[in-house]
Write a structure and sequence with these properties.
Structural class: alpha+beta
Largest sheet: 7 strands, antiparallel
Helix content: 10-25%
Radius of gyration: 18 Å
Order of helices and strands: HHEEEEEEEEHHEEEEEH
Length: about 240
Amino acid sequence: MAPTSEWLSQWEQQRDKLKCPVDLNDYFVLPEIAGKQLAVIDIGPTSIPTGQILVRDPLCYLEHMEEQPYFQTAPVGTYSTEVCVVKPDEDGDCARYAAVRLRFSDAPAVRFEEALIGHEDILGMEDDEFFGFNVDAGLACICDKQAHLAFCDFVSRWHQEHPEGNLYDDYFAVLFAKSFRENPQYQRDAGDWLNWTIPDTDCHIPMFQSGFGDGAYPVYWGYDQAGEICQIVVQFIDIQLAYS
């Protein structure tokens, strides 16, 4: 559902509140933040056939057909999925995924602004708040609307064929474990990411661990100097705040 003209007017007036408080470029270019060593890994393609993007927990929310994409659109294409990893430390903590991004062009992002669906209560937003999306199964994904509909169809068929089944335990778990065996760096043995192609389609939906697990997380559009959208970034960890 498209946002109303009244909502868009409020959005224009409140856009300063939607700016990311940190420069997310740093996550993908600096070797260290707040004493934590960082790495960037490519977990394969994300398919964006319509430019309408959702970011959701794939096991808890993506299967709902009524889920809506962000009101702004991205350039259509297939893009590498980059993950900023906080490397495992000497205290025994595992690799944590601090952010995931798609770059739609080579133009650098000069500002980051929260991605919204178009019905949020912007006027009620406090300066230190964000809207974000909810994670309840420790996973997230960046998904095009066309892929979302195909995912809903797949899940519906799967449950019809496996009425007593659990989608993760009985389907995805073996695929995540295979991802770990094939790409063990910065993954736990049960798998922390999976580049999944929806059966009977050519749509890629990478799924990935959500930093510290369940919670609410912001998503940001990156804008270039000309004001065009050039990135989308899912931020799971404010590295400076969490580790300083």
